[in-house]
Amino acid sequence: MPHPATNLPDLPRHVVDQMVGMALAEDLGLVGDLTSQATLPAEAVAECVIIAREPGCIAGLPLAEAAFRLVGPGVRFEAALADGSSFAPGDRIATIAGPARLVLSAERVALNFLTHLSGIATLTRRFVEAVDGTGARICDTRKTLPGLRAIQKYAVRCGGGSNHRYGLSDAVLIKDNHIAVAGGVTAALDAARANLGHLVAVEIEVDTLAQLEEALAAGARIVLLDNMDNDTLRRAVALNAGRAVLEASGRVRLERVRSIAETGVDFISTSQITAAAPPIDLGLDIDIRT
Length: 290
Description:
- The protein is α/β, with parallel strands linked by helices.
- It has helices at residues 13-28, 34-39, 61-70, 100-130, 149-158, 176-182, 185-195, 209-217, 230-240, 254-261, 272-275; strands at 45-52, 56-57, 76-79, 86-87, 92-99, 137-139, 172-174, 202-206, 222-226, 245-249, 267-269, 282-289.
- The model has no long low-confidence stretch (mean pLDDT 95).
């Protein structure tokens, strides 16, 4: 079994509990799980396992644990893997035991988080493996589902990827519309530096080699090369000559990412890993005893 991804950030418990609590409230409503209450004796006990039905990379175990913990007292959750671990069909992901009504009430919420986040981690790992040995790093974007950015970006880390900025408030990315309104590449960079603290990172997006030249002359330290073909990316890397960190973005697909990495860029950002990752098929097999 491959080792889990290293240096994973801790998901703050209050963030996890808030997200999972909202999901449980959405599903259980005002009166709870009518089906389980109507069909299962109060004393029934459930023992079950979450099993992988296809290969992948696990992510989201803290949220699955929270679903069973928050649904009510007496449910025990034990993960068989660590987030970031790879798994094969038939592998056990976790075991759960406790009052059957509670276990079944939390099942869908737990699996929704696990299958979605594991899908992101799995696709991210495929991108990371595709560029292995090139020196380029795969990172995400802000194209995430509203309210789920923190955990979707966590799943990217589980898959071995890197995180871009978390939002508009933690770094500056000067894009084409900013440049147009500010009056040009140099004007936008000068304005950003004049109005920001020294600890705020500033990246500027360029569409052409001429814009890259201007950005470098203006002292840019991080440059996003937007929607450039591979030949232009190679020329951009040569023009840069190590002066700035270069990030390639736009039209990044799994079948192309290796060739992008081989141009010599430092980072490759793609919305595919968060916005287009299919869920991983995980199932909960249960044995109910009274």
